[in-house]
Queue: 2 jobs
Job 1
Amino acid sequence: MADPVVLALAVPLCPLAAFALTWLLARGRPAAGAALSLPAIALSFVLSAVMLWGQVQAPGAIQADIPWMPAGRLSISMGILLNPLSALMMVIVTGVSLLVQIYSLGYMRGDPGFARFFSYLSLFSFSMLTLVLADNFILLYMAWELVGLCSYLLIGFWYEKPEAARAAKKAFVVTRVGDLGFLVGILMLSLLAGTFDFAGVARFIGAGSVPQGQVTLVVLLLFCGAVGKSGQFPLHVWLPDAMEGPTPVSALIHSATMVAAGVFMVARLYGIFQESADALRVVAGLGAFTAVFAAAIALAQDDIKRILAYSTISQLGYMMLALGVGGYGAGLFHLTTHAAFKTLLFLGAGSVIHAAGTNDIRQMGGLARRMPVTTVTFAVAVLAIAGIFPLSGFWSKDEILEAVRAGGHPVLYMVALGTVFLTAVYMSRLFFMAFTGASRGEGAHESPAIMTVPLLILAVLAAGLGMLGSPWVGRGIHGLLDPAAPRPVLNMGILVLSNGLAAAGILLALVLFGGRAGARAAHARKAGPLYSLLANKFYIDELYLLLIRALFFSLTTAVAWFDRHIVDGTVNLVGGASKMGGALLRRTLSGKIQGYALIITCGALAALAILLAAGLGLFGAWLTGPGILGPGGAGR
Amino acid sequence: MRFPFLTAIYCLPLLAVLIIFCFPARCRVAIRMVALVSSVAALAMTVLLFFWYDRVAGGLQFVEKVPWVSTLGISYFVGVNGINVILLLLTGIIITAGVLASWEVAHRQKEFFILLLTLTTGVFGVFMSWNLFLFFLFYEVAVLPMYLLIGIWGTGRKEYAAMKLTLYLMAGSALILAGILGLYFAAGQRSFDLDLLEKAAYDPVFQRVFFPILFVGFGILAALWPFHTWSPDGHASAPTAVSMLHAGVLMKLGAYGCLLVPMTLLPDGARFWLPMVALLSVVNIVYGSLGATAQKDLKYIVAYSSVSHMGIVMLGLSSMNGTGIGGAVLQMFSHGIMTGLFFALVGMIYGRTHTRMVDEQGGLASRIPVLAAFFVLTGLTSLGLPGLSGFPAELAVFIGAFRAYPVVTVVCTTGIVITAFYVLRLLQRLFFGVRRNTNGAAFGDAKSAFGDAKSAFGDANTVEFIALALLMLFILAVGLYPMPFVRVIGSAVAPIAARLGGM
C-alpha cells in the first residue's frame, strides 16, 4: 500500500496534469482534450474511493505540509488534511466530475471549444479537490478563488454570447464581495491566533483566550465567504445568471460541488464555528430564510435551469440551516444526496434542452413519450428532492427537520416545513409542464446513450443514497463523519408530516399545471401581484443595479472629475503660474540700460544694508548659532 | 582583482548604446539585434545574480568600492542586498521584453534604442548604488531620457505629457537633492556612503523635518497620492516600451528610494510619518481603482490601476514590519512585470485595432485568442488571483499592514473588489461578446485599417509571443512558489524592519 499522502496528493494532481497537458499538447485536436481529461478524473475517482474506504475502515486525520511562503512569525504552507469529511467530499467531487465529463462527451460534441471545455473541467476538478484537501486558511482561500476562476471561465465559456460574458463577470464579482469578508477574517486570525492551520486555530480559539465578541466577528467574516460561494441571501444573485454556462457546467459546478463549498467550509471549520453560538444562530437563520426565499422565487420561474438554480440556492440554505442548529451530520448527508439528485436534475434538463431546443418550460410539454429515459430519471430526481419516502432526499431532509426540531427552534422548524411544501410544488410544476400535457417539440428525441447512461447511474444514486442514513445500515454515513453519532432512528411523526406536505404540494401542482396549457397561464394571471413579485425575484437584482448606479458609478465619476480638475488642476495651476510669473519677469529684461542700472543700484544698496546690519549684530544669533540643521550641520 | 560583476550589468546597455552610435541608422536589423543581445545578456546576469546571491548570509554582496572624489566623500560604491537583487532582475526582464515590444519601431529607430538603453543603464545603476551621490547621478540618467522618448515617440498630447512628467519628476529630484545634502551635512562624516550614513545618529527633530522631504521626493515617482497625475498622462502618451519601463521599473525606483533613503536612514522620522503614509496609501488604492473604473482609454485604465497597485506597495512600506515591507518589495516585482505585460498588450492591441478606446472594440477573443489569453491572465494577476504573482505579494502586504493598522487595511481590501470589477468589465468589453470591429461600424479613421478583411490583423507573432511569455513566466513563478523570492527579499528587509522597531 502506497503512502496515503502521496495517494491523496495524486487526486488533485491528476486533473491538473490533464489540464496542463491539454494546453501543451492538444491544441487543435479536440478529441485529445477529452482523452486526457477523462482518464485523469477516473483515476482520481478510484483513488478517492480508496481513500474513503480507508477512512471507513480506520477513521483518522492525515496531515502533510510543505512551506510555501514565510510571513514574519507566521508561516504559510501548502498542506493537506485528509479526514473522513474530506474523503467523502473527494468522492462526491470526483464522482460527479466523472459522470459530467462522460455526459459532456455527448452534450458538447462538435463544439469548437471542445478541448478547452475539458481542460477547464480538469482545472476545476484540481481546484475543487485542493479546496477539499486544504489544511489551512490560505490554501483554502487560494483554492476558493481558483474554483471561482473556473466558474468564471465556464459560465463565460460561450463568450461570444454577451449574456454569458456578463453573467461570468457578475458571478466573480458578487462572490468576491463575500470573499472580502473571508479575507478580512483570515487577516484577523493571523493577528489573533498566529497561525493559519485549521487545527491550530481551532485549538487556539478553543482555549478561550480570545474574547467572545472577536470570535463571533471572525466566524461571521469567514462565513461571508460561504454566503457568496453558496449563493445565500443576499449574495445569491449570481447563481441564477450563472446558468448561461453550458448545462454540464451548471450540473457540476453550480449545483453539486463548487456552490456546496460554502457548506463544506462551515463543516470543515465546524470546531471554530461552534465556539460562537451567536454566529451559528446567524448561519441557521440565514440558511432557513434563503431556503424559503429561493423556493418561493422558483415557483414563478419559467426557465428550466433557473428553476433548478433557485432550487439549489434553497437546498443549500437547508444545509446551512442544518449546520447552524448543530446538525453536522444531517447537513453533510444532505449535501451528499443533493449532489446526486441535483446533478441528475441538471443533466436531465440538459437532455431536455438538447431535445426541445429551448429553456422555457412553457414551450415544452409532452416530452415523456419522446424521451422515456430522461423522463423516468427526472421523475426519480423530482421525487427525491421533494423528499418522498424512501428516496434519498427524504432521509437527509428529514434528518435536517429532526435536527431543527431537536435544537428547539420552532420558527425555523415551521420555515423548513413550509419549504418542503414549496419544493414539492415548484419541482412538480416543472415536471408536469415539461413532460406531460400536449406535445409541442415535434423534433424532440431521446439523447444518445453517452448522455443517458450517466442519467441512469445518477438515478440509482438519487434513489438509493439515502440508505446510508437509514436505520438499516448501521450508523452509515454518520459513523464516518462523527464517531460519537448515535445510530439514526426513523422519526415517524416527521416522516408522516413531511411526506404529507410533499404529497400535498405535488397534488397542488398536478391540479394547477397538470392540465391543459391554457389553464396554466390563467393561474398565473389570477395570482396577480404576488406572482409578478416572485417572477421578478423580489426585484433584488434591480435594487442592486440601482444601488450600483446611484452609489458606485457616481462615485467613480466623481473621483475621475476630482482627479482631472482638482488634483491635476492644481498641478496645471502651478505650471500656469510659473509661466505667468515668467511672463511678468520678462518685462524686466527690457533691454534698456537705464532700467538695468537702476536695478543694479538698488541691489547694491540692499546688499550693503544687509552687511551693515550683520556687522551691527542684528542677525548674529541666527548666523552663528546651531541653525536648523542641528549641531555640525551648518558648520563651515 | 575580482570580475566587476555589477558594473558589467549596467555596462552592457551602455556598451550597446556606444555600438548603436557607430551604426548608420539604416542598419535596422543590426541595431535591434544589438539592443536585444545586450538586454538578454543583462537579463542573464541578473538571473545569475539572483541565484548566486547568498540569501542565508544576506547583507551587501558583490561589493565594488573605489574612492572617487575623496575630499567630498564621493566613492564609486556598488553592491547588492536582497532587495537590489530582485529589482535588478525586474529591470533585466522588463528591458528584454521592452526591446522585443519595440521590435517594429520605425520612426528614428536608432535614436529610440539609444535613449531606451541609456535609461536602462541609469535604472540598473540606481538599483546597485550604495553611495548617495552615485545614486543620484544614475537616478537623473534614468529620468531624463524619458522626456525625449515621450516627446518624440509618444502619441496624443505627447509634448504636454512629456513636459509635465519631466517637470514633476524634476521637482521630486529637487526635494531628493535637498534631502541628500541635508543627510550628508547632518551626519558630519563627509561621506555619501550609505553604510556610513546608516550609522549616523540623526537628531529626531531633523529626522522629522527631512523624512517628508525625501519621502515625497521619491514618492512622486511612485505615484503617491496626490502627486500621481503625471502618471496617467505620461503613460498614455508614451510609446509601448517606455510605458513598460516607466510603470514597470521607474515607479519601483521611487518606492525603492523611499525604502532605501528616508526609511532606512531616518527611522524616527519614519515612525512619526509612516502612519500618514498609510492613510495616503488608502487613497491610492481605493481612489486609484475607482479612477480606473471611470476611464475609457485602455492606457488610462492601466495607469490608474498602477496608481492603485503602487498604493499597495506604499501600504506595505508603511507597515514598518518585515512581512509588510517584504510584501511591498514583492509587490514591486510583481506589479512591475504585470504592468509591463499590460502595457505591452495594450500596445499590441492598439497596433491592430488602432484605437485604445474600450467602447470601440469588442469580441476580440475570437480574433486574437493568444493575446486575449495573455490579457486575461494579466488581468487576473492584477485582481490578485492565487497562482499568479499578485496574490502572495498582496497577501503579505495585507498581513503585515493589518498588524500595524487594522482598520486602514480593511478599507484597503475593498480595493480588491473594485479591481475585480473593473478588470473583469474590461475583459468582457474588450474580448467577449459580439465582435464589434469586424462589421467595421462607427469607427472613424480606424475603419479602413481593419474593417474589411480578417487578414487585416492576426494574432501574436513570434517576437510578441516571446516577449509576453517571458513576462508571464515570472508571474507564474512568483505566484506558484514565492519562497525563493521571499527569502532573498527577507534577508534585506529584516534589518530595516528591525531599525524601525517592527516585527
Job 2
Amino acid sequence: MLELKGISYEVTEDSAQKEIIRDVTLTIPDDRFIVITGPNGGGKSTLAKLIAGIEKPTSGQILLDGEDITEKSITERARMGISFAFQQPVRFKGIQVLDLIRIAAGKKVSVADACQYLSEVGLCARDYINREVNASLSGGELKRIEIATVLARGTKMSVFDEPEAGIDLWSFQNLIEVFERMQKNIQNGSIVVISHQERILNIADEIVVLANGSIKEYGSRDEVLPGLLGTSSAVNSCQKLSK
Amino acid sequence: MIELDEIQKRMLMEVADLHKVPEGAFNIRANGKSAMRNTTANIDIISKPEGAGIDIKIKPGTKNESVHIPVVLSQSGLKEVVYNDFFVGEDCDVVIVAGCGIDNCGSQDSEHDGIHRFYIGKNSRVKYVEKHYGSGDGTGKRILNPGTEVYMEENSTMEMEMVQIKGVDSTDRYTKAELAAGANLIVRERLMTHGSQTAISSYRVELNGEGATADVVSRSVARDDSYQKFDARITGNAPCSGHTECDSIIMDQAKILAVPSLEANNIDAALIHEAAIGKIAGDQLIKLMTLGLTESEAEEQIINGFLK
C-alpha cells in the first residue's frame, strides 16, 4: 500500500514560486490497477516522479506499507519495491538490451528468460536481445523495452508514465494486453499508470483525476470514467491522431 | 626458456586472455627476453639481432591461424624499445594478439615502446588485438609508447582493436596506415585513464587507392585528474571513403582534447569526422538507480557499457 499524505511540490520559476503539486493526499491500496489522468500540465508526471523519488516533495509524507519513505533515495525506493517506467526512455551507448534486463532483474537471468520479457511486450526477442539501447532504436521500441525492464523487476509497485506515448496503434493493443496480464497477476502490489487514453482508463480499477496539481476526483472506474468521456482526460486513439 | 612467475602469468591473462600456453604460433617476451616461442608450418618467428624484436612471417594462403606475442615487464626500471615486423602473405586470414602488461612495484620508471609494422598482402584479412595493462603499487611509472604502422595492399582488410583500461601512467601512441585500392581499415580504440595519467593517441591514415575505406572509432573515459588527447587525421588521395569518430566521457577534473581532422586531395574522397565529449547524463544515472543500482554502481555500468 502506498500513501501520499499532504504532498506539495514547488519549483522556482523566473524567481517566483510555482506550485506543481498542491496538498495531494491519496491512498493506493494493494491489488489495484490505478490510472491517473487529467489535463496536460496538471502535475501527473511530477506525481509519478515524487513516488519514484526522482523529485522530493516540498512538504508532505510518502509511506510504503506504512514505512515513511519521504527521505529515501531513488535506489532505496527501487530496492523496497517501486519500479518506474520513464515517459521518455533513456538511451545508453554500449549497454545492450540483455544488460538492461539483467540489471533490472537484479540477477543474471538467462537469455531465454530475458527473451520472455521482450516477447511479453511484443518484440521479437532474437532481434533485440543483443541490440544496444541507443539511438538506433525507435521511440516505440525503446518504450517497449522500458516496459520489459519493469516486468523483469517484478516489484510490488509499478509506476508507468504515459506508457502509450510514441507507441503505434498496432502496438497499443499489445500494450493493453500487457497491462491486463499484469493486472491479473498482481499479488500484494499495485500498478499506477499515468495516461489519458480511454482504452487504458477502460481497464482501470480506479481513476484519479489530477488538475492544477490537485486531485479533482478519485473513485472507481464506473464512477469516474463516464464524466471524463469526451474531455481531454479520456481521449481515444482517433482523437489523438486528429490532433 | 625462462619460467614465468605468478605476476607475469597474471599479466598474460590481462593482456592476452592467456590462461596457459596458447595454441598456434606465439612468442612471449618477459623482462626484455624471449621466454617462450612456438612456430607453425605457416607462421615463422625469427629474432632480430641483439634482441631488438622479432620478424613474424606468415605464408601466403594461411587461414584461421593465430599469433600471440604478449610482453610482460615485472622488473622495475626496465626500459626497452622493440621492433616487431609482421609480413602477412597474400590471401591470408589470421588473428594477431599483442599486448603489454607492466607490473611496477619499484621506484624506477618501467617503459616498453613496441613498434609494430604490418605488411599485409593482397586480399588478406587480419584481426589485430592489442591490450595494455599496468599494475603494481610502486612509485615508478608504467610507461607504454606503442607505434603501429600498417601497409595494406589491394583489397586487404585490417581490423584493429586497441584497449587500454587500467594502470598505465603514460602513453603516447601513434598509428599510421597506408591503404591501396580496395583496402579496408577498421579501428576500435577503447581507453580509460584515471589518477594523473596521460594518454595521447594519434592516427594518420592515408587512403591512396580507389575504393579504400577507413573507419577509426575511439571511445574513452577520462577520470580523476587524467589527461587525454585524441588526434586522428584521415587523408583521401583517391576516390575513397573515411570516417573517424571520437566519443568521450569526461569525469571529475579530467581534461580531454579531441582533434579530428580530414584532408581530401581528390574530388571523390568522401570523408566524415565526428567528435563528442560530455559527462554522464543525469537521466542515465537516474534510470539505472530506479532499477536498484546506487549512483556509483550506475556510473560503473554506464562506463562498462560505453567501453565494451
